[in-house]
UniProtKB/TrEMBL annotation:
It comes from Antarctobacter heliothermus. This is Uncharacterized protein.
Length: 193
């Protein structure tokens, strides 16, 4: 039996978004406000990961720094990927240094819900509008998103606020001594002591 087109979810999208929002963790609005731009000078380049583009002042990354940005800005010291969770980008802008590790562009979600935000999945318009409405942010390369149907009924779940997010990030970058942070320090203007 040949595969048919996937089902049209338009009547259930708001319900799916509401369920997903209860289980996802978004950056706290106060933390996003404190971190006014990208947390790290990085973009995604899986093939050239850990290379430094000196002319652009960027570290080429493999999705580690978005995870660090999200956790460290909320005062969590872990470096590892949490089992059963995925870090999702709200906008697919992996080569945009201003978006790649911007907290407004990041979300922690259960792996089983991850496909809802992949490849313009049904959760994308809700996450994008949330970032615009709550954080006042969208990538410079994208227009402000329209409000999706049912958005007002969604209750979002946030990480706890952290009083000094950039201080914690700097402390982690200066304390750790792995290859990635050694390359990040000079790009972030930090000097080894």
């Amino acid at each position: 039996m040949p595969f048919e087109s996937p089902p049209d979810l338009k009547h259930d999208v708001a319900v799916l978004a509401a369920v997903a929002a209860r289980h996802c963790r978004l950056p706290h609005p106060d933390v996003v406000a404190e971190c006014t731009g990208p947390v790290f000078p990085t973009i995604r380049d899986q093939r050239k990961r850990l290379e430094v583009d000196e002319s652009a002042g960027l570290l080429l990354d493999d999705n580690v720094t978005p995870r660090w940005a999200l956790f460290w800005a909320h005062g969590m010291a872990q470096t590892h990927h949490p089992k059963g969770w995925t870090i999702a980008h709200v906008w697919a802008a992996p080569k945009d240094r201003d978006a790649y590790t911007h907290l407004a562009n990041l979300c922690l979600m259960p792996e089983c819900l991850g496909s809802l935000s992949d490849k313009l999945g049904p959760l994308c318009p809700y996450l994008q509008y949330h970032a615009f409405q709550v954080y006042g942010w969208h990538p410079a390369s994208a227009d402000p998103p329209p409000e999706p149907e049912g958005f007002a009924d969604i209750r979002w779940t946030y990480f706890d606020a952290y009083a000094s997010p950039l201080g914690f990030v700097k402390d982690r970058v200066m304390t750790l001594n792995n290859q990635r942070v050694v390359k990040l320090r000079p790009l972030m203007g930090f000097i080894d002591e």
